TrEMBL record:
This is HD domain-containing protein. Residues 61-125 form the HD domain. It comes from Marinobacter segnicrescens. Gene3D superfamilies: Hypothetical protein af1432 (1.10.3210.10). It holds the Pfam family HD. It comes from the Bacteria. InterPro entries: HD_domain (IPR006674), OP_Dioxygenase (IPR052567). Signal peptide: none annotated.
């Protein structure tokens, strides 16, 4: 059944990708670019889902993310780093068992290799503070001791992530960070589809 109607957005004609034409992919590429413009909005909306989710902590997950970003910002970290701090736990809702991987995948196209690595591995590094209470090896991070981004990730966890569960801690509002998210995510640096976004 074809649901093409007058005034509806143009759509490709194929039902199997193997049949796609240049014209089809120009239509799809145009839709992709238009949809990509709303990417920061979708990220910010998803981050808001962490509000009210305490998970047993003293502050909810959104407050934790905001405090982590606030601490990094107050310590004069650059905008990209602050956005990574803000989004480092955005994967909590969909990636219960691998939240850091989800967050890392979201920021990867827009950030440096070192910031991506930091976000991807922060869960292992923060485990030093509590894994032993759960019957796990708190020293898992030591496998990365010789990695060039070990110290960067250690600093992130110890200075910004770990102390950001304070009900009385400074917590800048999400609106403060929104322009940073939009700037950092305005254009991908590394992506399979980078050329399509230009």
């Amino acid at each position: 059944m074809n649901d093409m109607t007058v005034g509806a957005p143009e759509r490709a004609n194929f039902s199997d990708m193997k049949e796609g034409t240049q014209e089809d992919w120009e239509i799809i590429g145009g839709c992709f670019r238009e949809f990509a413009k709303g990417h920061p909005d979708r990220i910010l909306e998803h981050l808001k889902l962490l509000g009210g989710d305490f998970g047993g902590f003293k502050v909810d997950r959104l407050t934790h993310c905001l405090q982590t970003a606030t601490l990094a910002h107050r310590d004069s970290k650059d905008e990209e780093y602050v956005v990574c701090a803000l989004l480092h736990d955005i994967g909590d809702t969909l990636g219960t068992f691998n939240h850091a991987d989800i967050a890392a995948a979201i920021v990867e196209p827009f950030v440096s290799e070192e910031n991506h690595w930091m976000v991807k591995h922060h869960a292992i590094f923060q485990g030093y503070y509590f894994f032993h209470h759960l019957g796990m090896d708190r020293n898992l991070r030591e496998q990365y001791r010789d990695h060039p981004y070990y110290e960067r990730t250690l600093e992130f966890v110890s200075k910004y992530d770990s102390p950001a569960f304070n009900p009385d801690g400074e917590t800048l509002p999400l609106e403060f960070f929104e322009p940073m998210v939009r700037r950092v995510m305005a254009k991908p640096k590394r992506s399979l589809y980078k050329a399509v976004s230009e």
